[in-house]
Design a protein that fits this description.
homopentamer; elongated; 0% helix
Amino acid sequence: MNLAKVVGTVVATQKEASLEGLKFLILQKVDLDGTPAGGSLVAVDAVDAGVGEIVLFATGSSGRQTVRTDKRPCDAVVMAIVDSWEVAGEVKYKKGTDD
Amino acid sequence: MNLAKVVGTVVATQKEASLEGLKFLILQKVDLDGTPAGGSLVAVDAVDAGVGEIVLFATGSSGRQTVRTDKRPCDAVVMAIVDSWEVAGEVKYKKGTDD
Amino acid sequence: MNLAKVVGTVVATQKEASLEGLKFLILQKVDLDGTPAGGSLVAVDAVDAGVGEIVLFATGSSGRQTVRTDKRPCDAVVMAIVDSWEVAGEVKYKKGTDD
Amino acid sequence: MNLAKVVGTVVATQKEASLEGLKFLILQKVDLDGTPAGGSLVAVDAVDAGVGEIVLFATGSSGRQTVRTDKRPCDAVVMAIVDSWEVAGEVKYKKGTDD
Amino acid sequence: MNLAKVVGTVVATQKEASLEGLKFLILQKVDLDGTPAGGSLVAVDAVDAGVGEIVLFATGSSGRQTVRTDKRPCDAVVMAIVDSWEVAGEVKYKKGTDD
C-alpha cells in the first residue's frame, strides 16, 4: 500500500457495466512527510473518502478485494482513510492538524 | 487506473486464439492537465473507445475483469471513456471542449 | 501489452518441470516508431514467433492465460505477432517493409 | 521479495471491514549493504515485526498469501524477519550487531 | 522473466509458517551481456540454483506457480538455471565458459 492525498474525481458515463455506481478518485501520492511525490493515479473509493483526505490505497488484484470492487476491472482501491502515521517515534501526520 | 489518450491501433492476425475479435488500442498516458506524459502501452478495448478519446485503463489481472477480456492473455484494458475530471475543485478536462 | 522485437533465445535445461518444451524468447521493447527503447525481458512464446519479428507481449498473471503457459511459472508471454500499427492515422510499422 | 527496514506505523480507523485488527507498517527499502535506498511503502505485518527490524516483504497477490492477509485488500506483507544475509560469501547484515 | 545472477542468500527464522524450508536467494539482475544492471531482489529457489549461477526468475503471482512456492507469500521465484542465450545469432552467455 502507499500513502496518497485525494485531489480530485473523474466522471465516466460510458464504461464497463460492472463499474456502475463506483466513484473514481484522483490520488496524488505523498512521501513520509505528507509532501506530494511520485505521481498520480485513479482509484476506486471503497471507504467514502473525500477530496483533501490522506488515504491508503492498494493496487493490482488486491484492488479488487473490497465489497465494492470485487470482480471489477479496477486495479487500485482506496481501502483506508489515514488518521496518523509516525516514523522513528515521531508523528509525521495527524488528521485535522495543519500540515 | 490511469488516464490516457487513444492514439492508434495495432493489427495482429497471428495470435492466441482467445484474442480473436478484440481490438488493440495504442494508449498515450496523460497527466492531470491532459498533457502526454509517461509513455505508451497497448490495451484491449472493452467500451468501444475511438482514436482521440481520453480513457481510463486498468492493468494486470484487473485487465481481464471485463466481458470481452475474461480469461484472455490481456494485461491492460480500456474500461471507461472519460467525460471529465477535476482537481482541487477545478475542471481540468471536459470532453468535447478544446483541450 | 507492449510492443517488442524478438532478438534472441534462452536455453535452460534445469528448470521447473512444467516449463518443459516451452521456448524462451528475448524481447527488446520498442517505442511507437519501432525503435528499441525501454529494456529487455524474457517471455515464453505462445504463437511461434521468430527472431526478428515484432510482437505483442502480456505480463503478470495474464502471461499465463494461453494454452501453452497455463499454470506455469511464466510472467510474460508473446501472445501476438504484429502485422502493423498506426498512430494518428499514420502507419508507423508494417510487417515485411523495411523499417 | 525485497529487504526493508520497519521505520514506522500507520493508524487508520475508517477502513474496509476485512482490514480490522491488522497492523500497517511503514517500510523503508534497503540495499544489499542495509543502507536505505529505493523509497518507502506500507505493508501489513504477518510476523509481529517491530520498528527498527530488517524484514522481507512480498507484494502483489502474494501479499495476500498469509493467514492474516488472505482475501484482504492488501498488496504488501511483511512475511519474514531477517536474521542475516550474505553476498559473495561475505556477511552483509547480521541481526543484533551494529550496522 | 528476467536474467539474473545468484549472488547471495538470506536467513530468516521468524516467518510465515508456509515458508518453512524454502531457500531465499539474492539475485542481481544482469543485462543481455551478462553484466550486472538494474538492481537486486530476493527470490525463492525452485530449482536448486547455487550462488554464482545465472538464472531466470519469474515475479508476481507467477512466482507461486512452482511445486515449492504454491500458495506461499512469495512474489519471485528462480524457475530455471540458464545454460546459454544468444542475441541476433551471437552467443552472449554460455555456462561454464569465462564471462
